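Lecture 7 notes: from sequence to structure.
We start with the chain below.
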Amino acid sequence: MTGPKLRAARRRLGWTQRAAAGALGVSPRTLSRWECNAVKIHPSAARFVAHLVAEHATSRKRAGHRR
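Predicted structure tokens for the same chain:
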């Protein structure tokens, strides 16, 4: 996962950098550096974010079918 993809995923979830950093167990500065591609994203963090985005998309699809 690249920094811009991480940023887009975080925004899709509606999270601030502070909230996302807390969920990932890193500082907001680390998250910011990941999003700017200044530092490589830790693979486990990238997997976690991908999982959250997939869950978010699935729950939105389910909610859409209930209408």
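Points to note: The chain has four helices and no strands. The two ends are 33 Å apart (CA to CA).
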